[in-house]
Structures are given as structure tokens and as C-alpha cells.
């Protein structure tokens, strides 16, 4: 598999490229958004940093998605931009510092999902529909008003249906830290989502691990 690594940090790029090659991947490295967009057409997989020297990585992501459905993971230190990346078509994300083993596992998971007939644009769990693009949640056809952050929590899970999202991963993506105050806020938002939707099983808690979207929330 040909992997395009778009990363301007040469030391990090070299380390990731070495690990990817050991995993059996062929790696092409680009340092700029312009080169990344140009080379994406020939790649089987794209790893895209958002902090690039010539253009914002989110703009590069939009340009790639205009002409390609190539599996793509955003790799960024900008935790606050994770949801923006997902909304613009990224298949998954990793917040720096990156653990190489986790990166390879995420890539394999994205490839499995990409083999399905359609890319996830909305998630359905029983009578609950989470529309990621429209930022809309309905239960049995009825709109459920969630706050911005409540929807953000649900969107992280809905973007990866059937997969477990680690608690710290959600905290880093939405709050940028794993502090006690952020952890308590996450607890409150999960509780509010269950209450407002009336579906306690919509978010499944895996004690000591994290959360996943429920298959049958009723």
C-alpha cells in the first residue's frame, strides 16, 4: 500500500516513515500542503498534518476530498481542529504525540471501513440518526436539540460506529487536555445526551476504557 505522509516536521516524518516501512507500507513524504494535494491522487492512504508551512491543512483536506475518496487520517497537534477535520471528510484522527502502533491500528481500521459500500456521513443506531454534516440528531423522526459540545461528543463516536473511543482520546480531541475538570464535563455531556434523546443505550460506557455508539439504544 502506498502511503502519503504530509508532515513538515522532518524528525517526526522520518520516525513515522520508518515505522510504516517496517509495517510493509511504501511511503512518500511531502512537507507542504501543495505537494500533499498533488501527490494524493497517486496514494492509497494519506496521513495529513494540519500545521503546514504553506497553507492550512484543513484547506488541503478540502482540496483532496474534491477529487478523491482516498482513506485519510488527520495527524495533528491542534486538538481543537479534530472535529473540523472530520466534518471536512477525514476518516479518523490522531492527536500528537503519535504512538506508531496506534497509528498502524487506526490505518487498518480505516481501510476496513473504506471497503464498505459508503463512507460514513451519518450514523444510525436504532431509531436514532446522527447526521454529521448537518449537525442534527433525530429520535424516531423527532429533532433533539443538543448543545454544541453535546453534539461534538456524540459526533466523535458517530464518526467511528462500532469502535471504542478511549476516554482520554475524546478529552484531548474536544478539550485539549485530560484534566479532572474536563473529565467531569465529559461525564455531564454524556449524561445529558442520554437524557435528551431518551436512549440510555445510545452511548455505551466501557469502564476503564471509553465509550462507543450503541447498536440498539432503546
TrEMBL record:
Keywords: DNA-binding, Phosphoprotein, Transcription, Transcription regulation. Pfam families: Response_reg, Trans_reg_C. One of its GO terms (cellular component) is cytosol. The modification 4-aspartylphosphate is found at residue 49. Gene3D superfamilies: 3.40.50.2300, 6.10.250.690, Winged helix-like DNA-binding domain superfamily/Winged helix DNA-binding domain. GO terms for molecular function: phosphorelay response regulator activity; transcription cis-regulatory region binding. GO terms for biological process: regulation of DNA-templated transcription. Residues 120-215 bind DNA. Residues 2-111 form the Response regulatory domain. CDD domains: trans_reg_C (cd00383). It comes from the Bacteria. Residues 120-215 form the OmpR/PhoB-type domain. Coiled coil: none annotated. This is Sensory transduction protein RegX3.
Amino acid at each position: 500500500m502506498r502511503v502519503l505522509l504530509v508532515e513538515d516536521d522532518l524528525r517526526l516524518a522520518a520516525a513515522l516513515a520508518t515505522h510504516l516501512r517496517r509495517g510493509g507500507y511504501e511511503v512518500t513524504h511531502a512537507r507542504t500542503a501543495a505537494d500533499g494535494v498533488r501527490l494524493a491522487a497517486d496514494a492509497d492512504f494519506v496521513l495529513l498534518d494540519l500545521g503546514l508551512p504553506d497553507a492550512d491543512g484543513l484547506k488541503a483536506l478540502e482540496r483532496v476530498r474534491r477529487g478523491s475518496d482516498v482513506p485519510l487520517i488527520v495527524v495533528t497537534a491542534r486538538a481543537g481542529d479534530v472535529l473540523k477535520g472530520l466534518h471536512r471528510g477525514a476518516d479518523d484522527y490522531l492527536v500528537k504525540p503519535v504512538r506508531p502502533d496506534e497509528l498502524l491500528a487506526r490505518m487498518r481500521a480505516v481501510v476496513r471501513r473504506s471497503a464498505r459500500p459508503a463512507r460514513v456521513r451519518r450514523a444510525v443506531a436504532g431509531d436514532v440518526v446522527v447526521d454529521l454534516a448537518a449537525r442534527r440528531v433525530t429520535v424516531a423522526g423527532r429533532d433533539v436539540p443538543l448543545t454544541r459540545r453535546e453534539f461534538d461528543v456524540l459526533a466523535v463516536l458517530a464518526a467511528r460506529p462500532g469502535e471504542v473511543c478511549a476516554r482520554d482520546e475524546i478529552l484531548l480531541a474536544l478539550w485539549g487536555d485530560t484534566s479532572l475538570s474536563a473529565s467531569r464535563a465529559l461525564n455531564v455531556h454524556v449524561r445529558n445526551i442520554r437524557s435528551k434523546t431518551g436512549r440510555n443505550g445510545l452511548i455505551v460506557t466501557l469502564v476503564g476504557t471509553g465509550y462507543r455508539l450503541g447498536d440498539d439504544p432503546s
